[in-house]
Amino acid sequence: MMTSVAPKQFQHDGFHIARSLFTPDEASHIRDVFMEQAKDGPVEGLSEDRHAGREAYDPGDPLARYPRMLMPHQHPEKIVGELSMGLMLDRRLEPILRELFGEEPLGVQSMFYFKPPGARGQDLHQDNFYLRVKPGTCIAMWLAVDDADRENGGMVVVPGSGNLDIVCPEAADERKFFTTEHVPVPAGLQEKAIDLKAGDVLFFNGSLIHGSYPNTSRDRFRRAFIAHYVPRSTTELSHWYRTPYSFDRQTHTIADATGGGPCGNLQPSARH
Protein backbone atom coordinates (compact mmCIF):
# COMPACT_ATOMS: atom_id res chain seq x y z
CA MET A 1 0.00 0.00 0.00
CA MET A 2 1.29 3.43 -0.92
CA THR A 3 1.83 6.05 1.76
CA SER A 4 0.87 9.71 1.50
CA VAL A 5 4.56 10.52 0.97
CA ALA A 6 4.87 8.47 -2.22
CA PRO A 7 3.26 10.94 -4.65
CA LYS A 8 5.62 13.68 -3.47
CA GLN A 9 8.58 11.36 -3.90
CA PHE A 10 7.29 10.33 -7.32
CA GLN A 11 6.97 13.96 -8.36
CA HIS A 12 10.54 14.66 -7.19
CA ASP A 13 12.29 11.50 -8.40
CA GLY A 14 10.04 10.45 -11.30
CA PHE A 15 9.66 6.85 -10.12
CA HIS A 16 8.19 4.69 -7.35
CA ILE A 17 8.87 1.04 -6.43
CA ALA A 18 6.07 -1.17 -5.07
CA ARG A 19 7.87 -4.12 -3.53
CA SER A 20 6.22 -7.58 -3.66
CA LEU A 21 3.05 -6.23 -5.28
CA PHE A 22 2.78 -9.56 -7.10
CA THR A 23 3.66 -12.90 -5.52
CA PRO A 24 6.53 -15.18 -6.60
CA ASP A 25 3.93 -17.74 -7.75
CA GLU A 26 2.25 -15.12 -9.95
CA ALA A 27 5.61 -14.14 -11.44
CA SER A 28 6.38 -17.81 -12.11
CA HIS A 29 3.04 -18.29 -13.88
CA ILE A 30 3.60 -15.23 -16.10
CA ARG A 31 7.07 -16.51 -16.94
CA ASP A 32 5.76 -19.98 -17.83
CA VAL A 33 3.00 -18.67 -20.10
CA PHE A 34 5.29 -16.45 -22.13
CA MET A 35 8.09 -19.00 -22.34
CA GLU A 36 5.58 -21.52 -23.67
CA GLN A 37 4.57 -19.01 -26.34
CA ALA A 38 8.21 -18.49 -27.32
CA LYS A 39 9.25 -22.16 -27.27
CA ASP A 40 9.45 -22.32 -31.08
CA GLY A 41 10.82 -18.83 -31.60
CA PRO A 42 9.13 -15.54 -32.52
CA VAL A 43 5.34 -15.63 -32.79
CA GLU A 44 3.73 -13.98 -35.80
CA GLY A 45 1.45 -11.13 -34.80
CA LEU A 46 2.88 -11.03 -31.28
CA SER A 47 6.68 -10.85 -31.40
CA GLU A 48 8.40 -7.72 -32.67
CA ASP A 49 9.45 -8.18 -36.29
CA ARG A 50 12.85 -6.82 -37.23
CA HIS A 51 14.22 -8.15 -40.50
CA ALA A 52 15.70 -5.15 -42.28
CA GLY A 53 17.25 -1.75 -41.78
CA ARG A 54 19.11 -0.19 -38.87
CA GLU A 55 17.13 -2.15 -36.27
CA ALA A 56 17.53 -5.60 -37.84
CA TYR A 57 18.70 -8.36 -35.52
CA ASP A 58 21.71 -10.42 -36.57
CA PRO A 59 20.78 -14.14 -36.63
CA GLY A 60 23.29 -14.72 -33.82
CA ASP A 61 21.72 -12.06 -31.61
CA PRO A 62 19.91 -13.63 -28.62
CA LEU A 63 17.05 -11.18 -29.29
CA ALA A 64 16.51 -12.72 -32.72
CA ARG A 65 15.33 -15.83 -30.87
CA TYR A 66 13.56 -13.92 -28.09
CA PRO A 67 12.36 -10.54 -29.40
CA ARG A 68 10.00 -8.56 -27.20
CA MET A 69 6.27 -9.18 -27.59
CA LEU A 70 4.06 -6.19 -28.33
CA MET A 71 0.46 -5.66 -27.21
CA PRO A 72 -0.05 -9.20 -25.85
CA HIS A 73 -3.34 -8.03 -24.26
CA GLN A 74 -4.71 -7.84 -27.82
CA HIS A 75 -3.51 -11.32 -28.80
CA PRO A 76 -6.34 -13.66 -29.84
CA GLU A 77 -4.90 -16.72 -28.09
CA LYS A 78 -6.91 -16.86 -24.89
CA ILE A 79 -4.20 -17.69 -22.36
CA VAL A 80 -1.90 -14.87 -23.54
CA GLY A 81 -4.57 -12.27 -24.21
CA GLU A 82 -6.50 -12.81 -20.99
CA LEU A 83 -3.39 -13.01 -18.82
CA SER A 84 -1.97 -9.82 -20.33
CA MET A 85 -5.23 -7.91 -20.13
CA GLY A 86 -5.60 -9.06 -16.53
CA LEU A 87 -2.09 -7.86 -15.71
CA MET A 88 -2.47 -4.50 -17.42
CA LEU A 89 -5.77 -3.89 -15.59
CA ASP A 90 -4.94 -5.63 -12.32
CA ARG A 91 -6.90 -4.03 -9.48
CA ARG A 92 -3.76 -3.66 -7.35
CA LEU A 93 -2.37 -1.21 -9.87
CA GLU A 94 -5.37 1.09 -10.17
CA PRO A 95 -5.18 2.89 -6.79
CA ILE A 96 -1.44 3.43 -7.16
CA LEU A 97 -1.79 4.86 -10.66
CA ARG A 98 -4.77 6.96 -9.64
CA GLU A 99 -2.76 8.47 -6.79
CA LEU A 100 0.24 9.14 -9.01
CA PHE A 101 -1.82 10.68 -11.81
CA GLY A 102 -4.25 12.41 -9.48
CA GLU A 103 -7.08 11.07 -11.64
CA GLU A 104 -8.39 7.94 -13.35
CA PRO A 105 -5.76 5.92 -15.28
CA LEU A 106 -6.33 4.28 -18.67
CA GLY A 107 -4.24 1.36 -19.95
CA VAL A 108 -2.96 1.83 -23.51
CA GLN A 109 -0.11 -0.63 -24.07
CA SER A 110 1.38 -3.93 -22.90
CA MET A 111 4.73 -5.57 -23.70
CA PHE A 112 6.75 -8.59 -22.61
CA TYR A 113 10.56 -8.54 -22.63
CA PHE A 114 12.59 -11.77 -22.43
CA LYS A 115 16.13 -10.28 -22.19
CA PRO A 116 18.03 -13.61 -22.52
CA PRO A 117 21.69 -14.02 -21.52
CA GLY A 118 23.95 -12.08 -23.88
CA ALA A 119 21.20 -9.66 -24.96
CA ARG A 120 22.01 -6.02 -25.50
CA GLY A 121 20.50 -3.37 -23.28
CA GLN A 122 17.94 -0.67 -23.98
CA ASP A 123 19.56 2.76 -24.20
CA LEU A 124 18.46 5.69 -22.09
CA HIS A 125 15.20 7.21 -23.34
CA GLN A 126 11.94 8.89 -22.29
CA ASP A 127 8.64 7.12 -22.87
CA ASN A 128 6.60 10.17 -23.78
CA PHE A 129 8.85 10.73 -26.79
CA TYR A 130 6.96 7.71 -28.17
CA LEU A 131 3.50 7.99 -26.61
CA ARG A 132 3.17 11.77 -27.14
CA VAL A 133 0.56 12.20 -24.40
CA LYS A 134 -1.03 15.64 -24.19
CA PRO A 135 -1.58 17.24 -21.77
CA GLY A 136 0.66 15.75 -19.10
CA THR A 137 2.50 12.49 -19.61
CA CYS A 138 2.23 8.71 -19.34
CA ILE A 139 3.24 6.34 -16.53
CA ALA A 140 4.90 2.97 -17.06
CA MET A 141 4.33 -0.12 -14.93
CA TRP A 142 7.40 -2.41 -15.08
CA LEU A 143 6.71 -5.78 -13.43
CA ALA A 144 9.81 -7.87 -12.73
CA VAL A 145 9.11 -11.48 -13.71
CA ASP A 146 12.66 -12.52 -12.73
CA ASP A 147 14.99 -10.98 -10.19
CA ALA A 148 16.58 -8.10 -12.11
CA ASP A 149 19.98 -6.61 -11.33
CA ARG A 150 22.90 -5.07 -13.15
CA GLU A 151 24.38 -8.44 -14.17
CA ASN A 152 21.31 -9.75 -15.99
CA GLY A 153 20.20 -6.47 -17.53
CA GLY A 154 18.32 -4.67 -14.77
CA MET A 155 16.83 -1.23 -14.94
CA VAL A 156 18.64 2.08 -14.68
CA VAL A 157 16.94 5.43 -14.04
CA VAL A 158 18.05 9.05 -13.78
CA PRO A 159 16.36 10.40 -10.62
CA GLY A 160 15.07 13.93 -11.02
CA SER A 161 14.74 13.73 -14.80
CA GLY A 162 11.00 13.12 -14.56
CA ASN A 163 10.46 16.87 -14.32
CA LEU A 164 12.26 17.59 -17.59
CA ASP A 165 10.81 18.28 -21.01
CA ILE A 166 11.27 15.66 -23.71
CA VAL A 167 14.90 15.72 -24.87
CA CYS A 168 15.49 15.07 -28.56
CA PRO A 169 17.62 11.90 -28.67
CA GLU A 170 20.94 11.14 -30.27
CA ALA A 171 21.85 7.87 -32.02
CA ALA A 172 22.40 4.90 -29.70
CA ASP A 173 25.44 2.61 -29.79
CA GLU A 174 24.11 -0.48 -31.59
CA ARG A 175 26.94 -2.60 -30.19
CA LYS A 176 25.52 -2.19 -26.67
CA PHE A 177 21.83 -1.43 -27.22
CA PHE A 178 19.07 -2.87 -29.38
CA THR A 179 17.17 0.42 -29.54
CA THR A 180 18.09 3.36 -31.76
CA GLU A 181 17.62 6.40 -29.49
CA HIS A 182 19.93 7.70 -26.76
CA VAL A 183 19.14 10.52 -24.34
CA PRO A 184 22.25 11.78 -22.52
CA VAL A 185 22.21 12.24 -18.75
CA PRO A 186 21.69 15.95 -18.05
CA ALA A 187 24.35 17.89 -16.15
CA GLY A 188 23.95 17.58 -12.40
CA LEU A 189 22.04 14.27 -12.56
CA GLN A 190 23.31 10.67 -12.33
CA GLU A 191 22.24 7.19 -13.34
CA LYS A 192 20.92 4.90 -10.60
CA ALA A 193 20.70 1.11 -10.91
CA ILE A 194 17.40 -0.35 -9.68
CA ASP A 195 17.51 -3.91 -8.34
CA LEU A 196 14.14 -5.66 -8.33
CA LYS A 197 12.89 -9.02 -7.10
CA ALA A 198 10.36 -11.04 -9.07
CA GLY A 199 6.96 -9.54 -8.23
CA ASP A 200 8.28 -6.01 -7.59
CA VAL A 201 6.81 -3.22 -9.73
CA LEU A 202 8.62 -0.08 -10.84
CA PHE A 203 6.38 2.86 -11.79
CA PHE A 204 7.85 5.84 -13.64
CA ASN A 205 6.58 8.82 -15.57
CA GLY A 206 7.02 9.52 -19.25
CA SER A 207 9.77 12.12 -18.87
CA LEU A 208 12.03 9.99 -16.65
CA ILE A 209 15.24 9.10 -18.47
CA HIS A 210 15.68 5.35 -18.06
CA GLY A 211 16.91 2.21 -19.78
CA SER A 212 18.45 -1.15 -19.01
CA TYR A 213 21.89 -2.73 -18.97
CA PRO A 214 23.06 -5.53 -21.28
CA ASN A 215 22.53 -9.01 -19.87
CA THR A 216 26.09 -10.14 -19.14
CA SER A 217 25.07 -13.20 -17.11
CA ARG A 218 25.79 -16.73 -18.31
CA ASP A 219 22.36 -18.27 -17.76
CA ARG A 220 19.87 -15.76 -16.28
CA PHE A 221 16.96 -14.32 -18.22
CA ARG A 222 15.58 -10.94 -17.18
CA ARG A 223 11.94 -11.14 -18.13
CA ALA A 224 9.46 -8.35 -17.50
CA PHE A 225 5.85 -7.47 -18.22
CA ILE A 226 5.38 -3.78 -18.98
CA ALA A 227 2.29 -1.62 -19.42
CA HIS A 228 1.75 2.06 -20.10
CA TYR A 229 -1.06 4.26 -18.82
CA VAL A 230 -2.37 7.73 -19.51
CA PRO A 231 -4.61 10.00 -17.42
CA ARG A 232 -8.32 10.09 -18.27
CA SER A 233 -7.95 13.79 -19.19
CA THR A 234 -5.59 12.95 -22.08
CA THR A 235 -6.71 14.64 -25.30
CA GLU A 236 -3.95 13.41 -27.66
CA LEU A 237 -1.98 10.16 -27.92
CA SER A 238 0.25 8.60 -30.58
CA HIS A 239 -1.80 6.54 -33.03
CA TRP A 240 0.22 3.43 -32.14
CA TYR A 241 -1.55 3.23 -28.77
CA ARG A 242 -5.17 2.81 -29.78
CA THR A 243 -8.03 1.51 -27.63
CA PRO A 244 -7.42 2.86 -24.13
CA TYR A 245 -9.02 0.75 -21.39
CA SER A 246 -10.29 1.82 -18.00
CA PHE A 247 -9.90 -0.64 -15.13
CA ASP A 248 -13.50 -1.78 -15.55
CA ARG A 249 -12.46 -2.88 -19.09
CA GLN A 250 -14.46 -0.20 -20.85
CA THR A 251 -12.86 1.23 -23.98
CA HIS A 252 -12.32 4.94 -24.55
CA THR A 253 -11.40 7.19 -27.44
CA ILE A 254 -8.45 9.59 -27.52
CA ALA A 255 -7.56 11.68 -30.57
CA ASP A 256 -4.35 10.93 -32.45
CA ALA A 257 -1.41 13.19 -31.62
CA THR A 258 -0.98 15.89 -34.21
CA GLY A 259 2.06 17.66 -35.64
CA GLY A 260 5.62 16.40 -35.66
CA GLY A 261 6.09 16.13 -31.91
CA PRO A 262 8.69 18.04 -29.89
CA CYS A 263 11.53 16.67 -32.00
CA GLY A 264 10.05 17.19 -35.45
CA ASN A 265 11.07 14.55 -37.95
CA LEU A 266 12.95 12.67 -35.26
CA GLN A 267 9.56 11.54 -33.95
CA PRO A 268 9.55 7.73 -34.16
CA SER A 269 7.24 5.95 -36.54
CA ALA A 270 7.26 2.62 -34.65
CA ARG A 271 5.84 1.60 -31.31
CA HIS A 272 8.04 1.83 -28.21
User: What profile does the largest beta sheet have?
Assistant: 6 strands, antiparallel
SSE succession: HEHHEHHEEHEEEEEEEEEE
Overall tally of domains: 1
CATH topology: Jelly Rolls
| CATH architecture grouping | Sandwich
Mean pLDDT: 92
Overall geometry comes to globular
Brief summary:
The protein has 272 residues and is an alpha+beta fold. It has helices spanning 6-13, 24-37, 62-65, 78-88, 93-101, 128-131, and strands spanning 15-18, 69-70, 105-113, 122-125, 139-144, 155-157, 170-171, 181-182, 192-194, 201-205, 210-212, 224-231, 236-237, 255-256.
Keywords:
six-stranded antiparallel sheet, 272 residues, Jelly Rolls
What does this structure look like?
This protein is an alpha+beta fold and 272 residues long. 18% of the residues lie in helices and 20% in strands. The chain has 6 helices and 14 strands. The strands form 4 sheets. The protein has a 6-stranded antiparallel sheet. A 4-stranded antiparallel sheet has the order 4-11-6-9, with no helix packed on it. A two-stranded antiparallel sheet has the order 7-8. The model has no long low-confidence stretch (mean pLDDT 92).
Task: Outline the secondary-structure elements.
Elements (H helix, E strand, L loop, with lengths): L5 H8 L1 E4 L5 H14 L24 H4 L3 E2 L7 H11 L4 H9 L3 E9 L8 E4 L2 H4 L7 E6 L10 E3 L12 E2 L9 E2 L9 E3 L6 E5 L4 E3 L11 E8 L4 E2 L17 E2 L16
Parallel strand pairs: 13-14
Antiparallel strand pairs: 1-10, 2-3, 3-12, 4-11, 5-10, 5-12, 6-9, 6-11, 7-8
